[in-house]
Amino acid sequence: MPENYCIYVFIAYLIDLAVGDPRWLPHPVVLIGKAIEKLESLMRCFAKSPFSLQAAGVLTAVLITGGSWLLTFLLISWCFKINYWAGSLLSVWLISTTIAARGLAGAAGEIYALLREGNLAAARDKVGMIVGRDTGEMDPGSVTRATVETVAENIVDGVVAPVFYAFIGGAPLAMAYRAVNTLDSMLGYRNERYIYFGMASARLDDLFNYIPARITGMLLIAAAFLLRMNPRRALAAILRDAPGHPSPNSGIPESAVAGALGIRLGGLNYYGGHPSFRAYMGEDRGLLEPGHIIHTIRLMFIASGLAVIVGIIISALALSFTSRLL
Known about the structure:
- There is one protein chain.
- The protein is mainly alpha-helical.
- The chain has one domain.
- It is built from 11 helices and 2 strands.
- The chain has a two-stranded antiparallel ribbon.
- Strand 1 and strand 2 form a beta hairpin.
- It is globular.
């Protein structure tokens, strides 16, 4: 298996931009999700106490993450033994399934279009598919805020982090990251059901996203500069507001986007009818408008493109340095 994954990541990124995740192709995340459901069900047959639930949660996170890496590695290695191009094509496709730039932009773009048409009911339904909060009573500004926050947060989860891990360890490590992210999205809740069982998944996701989130912050500042937005306010918002976010990672892209656009994110949300206040990100310099969704999508595309370009440059320099030593 090749040790330098630059060309694979580059082509995979282009594939995601061109076609995204066609519904007629099987998606590895669906299989990972089913494996998580079955393993959770099995674990809960034996784990009842808080301690045993925590232990079962750790075992679930390790088995799903390690299993995703191992199965991907074995499958690609087997393909490379048959034919170099078969292994290469499989690697590229698998990496592309871990990247979600096109899908993220498409979902947000649909909400923008519905808001522009004045179809608030449909916009509420659509945003309800990508956020966990209650959307039935949202006004257009709240729908816009929810969409912008989701796109901003998923610049890390959906693009920069999988690209980062693909550069380091190819498709197996990128798939392991996607497994971690799926574990968190399914189990990482602080509610009665998952407070113990999902703790390991949530902590593992925080760990895996720690470096990518901070890289994303820098990339968003650069993207704001290139798009003639406000990189200084983006940096100021990260330093001032990101620590107030309940997540050690999500506050960085959200505050960066808020600062770059001159808007304020965060505030009061409802989950199952219960109010939950989230710290403000950015400054309230104007009303949230549907156009801010498009600006956020542009920031996402520029930041993700920069992630690939910078990754290629660093990988090329590392390869050159290593070859000189040898």
